[in-house]
């Protein structure tokens, strides 16, 4: 399914839900629950808080169904709502805790695409993890949302509460910083061998 078909499918699903079709509500839950849970764990180490926030989100979604607008982006709406609910449940003081790099499952796919050597893959993965650790929390969050969750820049700007250009700049600066850090660390690894 290409990007346009995916957007059309999601728009139809959302419009079906807003118009009162219960099957659409079930589909939204089953399509997004796992992704929302993984996303939520970046903001709370407590699975219970994430589950509670997700439960609150889907209860509110069902209860406020008549007040929702057609055409909204499902993924964007769910991500923003879940993030807010988690912050409310755990208190605002924990709002900007570090994103857990161990849950960023995209790293291996990025590294393994260019080599078949497992030992080299592991070294590259370690370097990438270290480089990711040097990014700001916002940069890690933005990169996760853009490249793992597949949000568009418009959706990303809404989730991060930034304007469109700021979201693009945040991703660009994060990628540039990753390139510099990764390149520097990989050179030092090969020089020390």
Strand proportion, as a percent range, falls in under 5%
Structural class of the secondary structure composition? Answer: mainly alpha
Largest sheet: none
What's the CATH topology name of the largest domain? Rna Polymerase Sigma Factor, Chain: A
Tell me what you see in this structure.
- By secondary structure, the chain is mainly alpha-helical.
- It has 2 domains: 92 residues, RNA polymerase sigma factor, region 2, helix turn helix motif (Rna Polymerase Sigma Factor, Chain: A); 92 residues, Winged helix-like DNA-binding domain superfamily/Winged helix DNA-binding domain (Arc Repressor Mutant, subunit A), CATH 1.10.10.
- Helix content is 73%, strand content 0%.
- The protein contains 9 helices and no strands.
- Helix 1 crosses helix 2 and helix 2 runs antiparallel to helix 3.
- The chain is globular.
- About 11% of the residues have low confidence.
Outline of the structure:
This protein is mostly helical. It contains nine helices and no strands. Residues 95-115 have low confidence and may be disordered.
Secondary structure: elements and pairs:
Layout: H1 3-18, H2 22-40, H3 47-63, H4 74-90, H5 106-112, H6 118-133, H7 137-148, H8 153-160, H9 164-192
């Amino acid at each position: 399914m290409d990007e346009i078909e995916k957007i059309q499918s999601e728009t139809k699903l959302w419009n079906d839900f807003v118009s009162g079709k219960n099957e659409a509500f079930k589909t939204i839950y089953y399509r997004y629950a796992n992704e929302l849970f993984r996303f939520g764990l970046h903001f709370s180490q407590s699975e219970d808080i994430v589950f509670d926030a997700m439960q609150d989100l889907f209860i509110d979604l069902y209860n406020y169904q008549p007040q929702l607008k057609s055409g909204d982006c499902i993924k964007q709406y769910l991500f923003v709502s879940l993030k807010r609910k988690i912050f409310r449940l755990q208190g605002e003081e924990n709002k900007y805790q570090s994103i857990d790099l161990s849950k960023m499952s995209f790293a291996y796919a990025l590294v393994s695409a260019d080599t078949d050597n497992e030992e080299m893959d592991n070294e590259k993965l370690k370097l990438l993890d270290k480089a990711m650790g040097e990014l700001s929390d916002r940069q890690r969050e933005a990169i996760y949302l853009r490249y793992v969750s597949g949000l568009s820049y418009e959706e990303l700007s809404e989730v991060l509460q930034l304007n469109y250009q700021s979201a693009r700049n945040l991703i660009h600066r994060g990628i540039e910083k990753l390139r510099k850090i990764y390149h520097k660390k990989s050179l030092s690894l090969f020089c020390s061998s």
